[in-house]
């Protein structure tokens, strides 16, 4: 069965797609990841069934890593009026909750958290 290195869960927002793809390419992951692009990335990870999509990737492609990528001015969070540091602070608990759930179910998975600024910078949080 085919396998790949990672599963990426990021927001569907068109403004971030090029920067996300470039960042993943720079990590050497080009062609090595399943890609999930949904509103708010890991927001409501359990409630919206996003966990099931990541687990499909795990089951089908034996992924080793998961990248959860959130971003500035995310419409799913509607925090655009706040300073970007505050936007990140409000999104981060959702990212950490999703990471915790994944690690509980699959302790061997590496889970990376990243935040993308609309100027294209990506900061890895964990
Ligand atoms: Zn978004």
From TrEMBL:
Lineage: Bacteria, Bacillati, Bacillota, Clostridia, Neomoorellales
GO molecular function: carbonate dehydratase activity; zinc ion binding
Cited InterPro entries: Carbonic_anhydrase_sf, Pro_CA_2
SUPFAM superfamilies for this protein: beta-carbonic anhydrase, cab (SSF53056)
Gene3D superfamilies, sorted: Carbonic anhydrase
Protein name: Carbonic anhydrase
Organism superkingdom: Bacteria
């Amino acid at each position: 069965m085919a396998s790949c290195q990672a599963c990426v869960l990021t927001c569907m927002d068109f403004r971030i797609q090029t920067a996300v793809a470039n960042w993943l390419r720079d990590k050497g992951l080009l062609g090595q990841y399943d890609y999930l692009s949904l509103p708010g990335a890991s927001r409501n990870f359990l409630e919206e069934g996003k966990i099931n999509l990541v687990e499909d990737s795990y089951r089908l492609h034996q992924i080793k890593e998961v990248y959860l990528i959130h971003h500035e001015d995310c419409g799913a969070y509607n925090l655009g009026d706040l300073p970007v540091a505050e936007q990140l602070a409000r999104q981060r608990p959702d990212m950490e909750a999703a990471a915790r759930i994944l690690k509980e179910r699959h302790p061997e998975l590496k889970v990376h958290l990243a935040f993308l600024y609309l100027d294209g910078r990506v900061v890895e949080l964990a």
